[in-house]
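RETRY 2/3 - previous attempt timed out on the joint model. Re-submitting the same 668-residue input unchanged.
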Amino acid sequence: MKTQWRDGERTREVELAPLGKGRWRVRVDDAEFEVSAEVMPDGKLRLVSDGRTTVAEVTPAGTRRFVRLGTLDFVLDREASGRSRAGGTQQAGSLEAPMPGVVTKVMVVVGDEVTKGQPLVAIEAMKMEHQIRAPRAGRVKRVAASPGLMVQSGAVLVELEADS
Amino acid sequence: MFKKVLIANRGEIACRIAATLHEMGVRSVAVYSEADRGTLHTRVCDEAVLIGPAEARESYLKADAVVDAAKASGADAVHPGFGFLAENAAFAEAVEAAGLTFIGPTATQIRAMGDKREARRIADRAGVPIVPGAEGADARALVRAANAMGYPVILKAALGGGGKGMKKAANEQELAESIEGAQRVAASAFGDESVYVEKLIERPRHIEVQVLGDGQGRAVHLWERDCTLQRRHQKVVEEAPSPVLDTEQRAQITHAAVRLAEAVHYRGAGTIEFLLTRDGHFYFLEMNTRLQVEHPVTELLTGVDLVRAQVEIAATGRLPFEQHQLPRHGHAIEARLYAEDAARDFLPQVGTASRVRWPDGPFVRVDRGVESGDPVSVHYDPMLAKIIAHGPTRDAALQRLLGALDETRVHGVVTNLPFLRALLRAPETRNSSYDTEWIEREFLGEFAALMQAPAPELALAAAAIADALNGGSSRASAGSGTAPAAPPDPFAALGRWRHAGLDR
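RETRY 2/3 succeeded.
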């Protein structure tokens, strides 16, 4: 069983094969190892690999998995199989809202030539204003944001024309 | 003494105030917005009153709705907490006009200290050194003033304290660009678009003094706090005493604070903030006419319950103690836990704090606003909790705080916990060799490099095995690889983990 996971900027692949009695053959990218996993009464996972025991706690929230390993925390996003989001839509030229909020200012119109780092849209969330800046130079193809608009995280705000 | 007090706030501070009222045998009334139905602060108070929709402007910032709730509930006093209406003089007046006691300074004092120009004038007259600056709503006049005092300058809301909406401008163009945004943030947070421009003192430390006044010209100090560890002028870690002041500087700065508080006949709890320059001089920054977020470090340092002191002063008009009854013991450090993603430019996070475990153990205190299952809403400040540790020495307190952060677990919403843990382990933090700009200038780069490291293979194995055991692949594939929009209800995805994980 293969799954893809977003780990910060990386996409990582995990392949699992059950060996029975709580044992698993695991491949993470190029590393292969065996793990025995036991669900403890409090819901945590007791993992034994290579003779070492680690307690893990996994909490799902949508596609996201919060993983505590010992005293360290990791946040992994499960990706739909067979599709990688690496690079995302940023390269294609659309700028997305990085968090939910209210659009307070739109500083460009369709056809504008923008330079890298130029502020395009301002969003206010939790009493803070965040400026969405152009990731590269280009021409504005579409403006989907307007002042006062409530946007969700990931909503497209502005599209730039593909690189010439 | 009051019989019933309405708490005009939400989150961790409302819970913290309720705890003291409970101990004093005073009934507590919570107010809440539609977004906060059933949240922790409404559960810990004796009563709770709905005051409006989710938007703060229509609920927690709406003075008449809060006053109406106070009257309807039969409260005889109102505690404003911090933020929202805490430094709104019209609100203090409205509370008193309704025949209730405002637990805080007089409206005149709030107005005087909320007006930066007036506050500076008062400080100046009281013999407290001040930094050059200018205030107003006219963008061109502000730019002219900044040109005269020289760059860099700092820009912030003229009303209200804290660092929200504060911006640095390195030159005229940056200043002009930022003024409009600062005005909008000021208008939405405080209902007044005036902004304040001040000459920036580079690489200072932030030292503040806690004072209590009886409203008749007598005041005491409860020592200083050092809040130098900041990111974007937002305090992250605070401690007391300051590790850099010597005895003489401490005497000077605390006496200056008392002088200022006595000069205005200050009533209740207040904080006088100073910048300490690299050559050891201090300048008045502002006075916050309310309880501070970081008040717990002073409470652990002195053993004084500041909320109780506020309530007692409001009820009796007398200070509960003399200066010589306020010794300090050991060292206290606080870390602020925020729902923000430190790996993605500290973007605020929303969702449900589905599984939360707070640390305990000796000399550890957690002022919290959420427990497992509570929502983290887009509408309000993303601070979830403050974790505070006390010890006989700074090293001991720091070690204890690190242990407490290791024990802390918040799942369901991304927090700045990894950032706090890395920050408190940095050598600069250990030997106090930082200034208010150090985090942004140096530490963020190191932290980003740290966050670049891939998660260990075992973490990925744990996630995949948990999903396999849970049969939990269905929701993941339903996500179709797009960025998560509105975070789905995590309970729906918990499956058979739910009972084991949550019902402890």
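Chain B touches chain A through 76 residues (CB under 8 Å). Closing ticket.
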